[in-house]
Amino acid sequence: xxxxxxxxxxxxxxxxxxxxxxxxxxxxxxxxxxxxxxxxxxxxxxxxxxxxxxxxxxxxxxxxxxxxxxxxxxxxxxxxxxxxxxxxxxxxxxxxxxxxxxxxxxxxxxxxxxxxxxxxxxxxxxxxxxxxxxxxxxxxxxxxxx
Length: 146
What we know:
- The chain is 42% helix and 18% strand.
- By secondary structure, it is an alpha/beta fold.
- The protein has helices at residues 12-23, 36-42, 62-68, 88-103, 115-124, 136-145; strands at residues 28-32, 45-49, 54-57, 75-79, 107-111, 131-133.
């Protein structure tokens, strides 16, 4: 039985930043429609040619556009804040998730502040392998910067 993958929400602002980095070489950029008329004419998101100042695509699906441009990488957030004990099985799951994400060009972020969990990660050397944050918001911010 296949496991259902959980989607981590990424803000539209982060999506737009990633897509715009990918579109920069083409002289294009994603814009957000402002006002009722723009929404009716262009949809919520649209792409413009910067040099010619003309609309290249209307009413785009931001997530699909990002995937087509390969601007979005897999991002996995393991929230360990309620975990009191981490054994070799748990570490194996984390490492397997990291391997799968990196094969697709992504990253895994751990969320924890518990000294016991941090100690296990330090002893195994995984504190140097994983990005570790105190809160899910911090982890998302780190992911958005990449």
